[in-house]
Design goal:
alpha/beta; 10 strands; globular; Nucleotidyltransferase, domain 5; five-stranded mixed beta sheet; 12 helices; 335 residues; 2 domains; 45% helix
Length: 335
């Protein structure tokens, strides 16, 4: 069974092909980074127009990479939420047309669920129950995937998502967009203990997270040093800022795993590509005797393979979508 997956939820036009749920045949991403870089962030209208231009060529490239033709595809999967409404509409409209034209099932995929399920392409079938930290530019959530495959949200950010916070601080200190990889790179030369930035809500008894205060603290300290004529070591700033984000996400996720009595932890989403986050989770899970499941970096960022994998699971379960499938910019990862 071959499933083609289409991902257009934000600023990556991505298409993947998965065979029999667990085998990756193709994963092609047309990046929009250069289009959005001058604005310091994703511009929804620009993203939607770029998807219109890039989607069909990206589908063609994925088919070539996978060694298949559209006539070989057994189902079309597409992200229908959450995400930017205009961007989602491009992918869903194209998927509907392809499914109707080739008389194959249409599969509506939850973008957040796909970030978790893509791990099956490298680790085999996930064996829930497990705890997952889904962390990206627009989402930061701690969830449980129960034995029946449904999700329960334990906590989430009450303000900024981690990727959003990375982008904002990177822009403030003069780093290019996207800020997450730039902060990660700069932090490797810095001291993570140089600044004592806050760890908000760390001991509040919930699994929720807050990064707005951390962002404000970094900006306040930098402005204070500027007023005092002190030149900050930006590598130290980046390392200390990054460590504060990692600390809260690590501690709260592993606390959730312990409280739920679970020994499997999934790290998923675009920010899961952060080297410090991966290293800290690897060390702590190994020390605790927990199994860490973290996809390779190409499968962490938004990609079509994750949509195809999640769609293949829906197809196997007999869950298909009608042609009136609509987009849902606020689609939740529950149920």
């Amino acid at each position: 069974m071959l499933v083609l997956g289409i991902e257009t939820s934000c600023d990556e036009t991505a298409v993947g092909v998965v065979e029999d749920r667990l085998t990756l045949r193709a994963n092609v991403i047309a990046s929009q980074t250069e289009l959005h870089a001058p604005f310091g962030g994703v511009v929804p209208e620009v993203a939607a127009r770029a998807h219109l231009d890039q989607l069909l060529p990206t589908i063609d490239t994925a088919l070539v990479q996978g060694g298949v033709h559209l006539s070989d595809i057994d189902a079309i999967a597409v992200t229908h939420g959450p995400g930017l409404v205009g961007a989602l509409l491009v992918g869903v409209s194209a998927a509907k047309g392809l499914a109707l034209a080739h008389d194959v099932p249409l599969l509506g995929v939850n973008h957040l669920r796909a970030h978790v399920e893509v791990a099956q392409l490298e680790f085999g079938d996930l064996d829930p129950p497990l705890v997952a930290l889904v962390v990206s530019g627009g989402h930061t959530s701690i969830v449980v995937m129960d034995a029946d495959g449904t999700f329960r949200q334990l906590g989430s950010t009450i303000d900024d998502a981690a990727g959003e916070a990375f982008d904002k601080i990177a822009r403030f200190i003069g780093l290019p967009f996207p800020g997450g990889p730039e902060i990660d790179k700069l932090a490797r030369d810095g001291d993570p203990t140089a600044f004592d930035f806050p760890r908000a809500m760390l001991h509040d008894g919930t699994y929720d997270l807050s990064l707005s205060g951390l962002k404000t603290a970094v900006i306040r300290d930098l402005r204070r040093m500027e007023a005092e004529g002190v030149e900050p070591d930006l590598a130290d700033v980046a390392a200390s800022f990054q460590e504060a984000i990692v600390d809260v996400q690590l501690i709260k996720t592993l606390r959730a795993a312990a409280d739920e009595g679970l020994d499997q932890v999934v790290l998923a989403g675009g920010v899961a590509a952060n080297s410090r986050l991966r290293a800290r989770f690897t060390a702590e899970c190994e020390s605790n005797g927990q199994r860490l499941i973290v996809p390779s970096i190409p499968l962490c960022t938004d990609n079509g393979a994750m949509v195809a994998a999640s769609g293949a699971n829906l197809l196997a379960a007999g869950v298909t979508a009608d042609v009136d499938l609509d987009v849902d910019p606020s689609l939740a990862l529950t149920g």
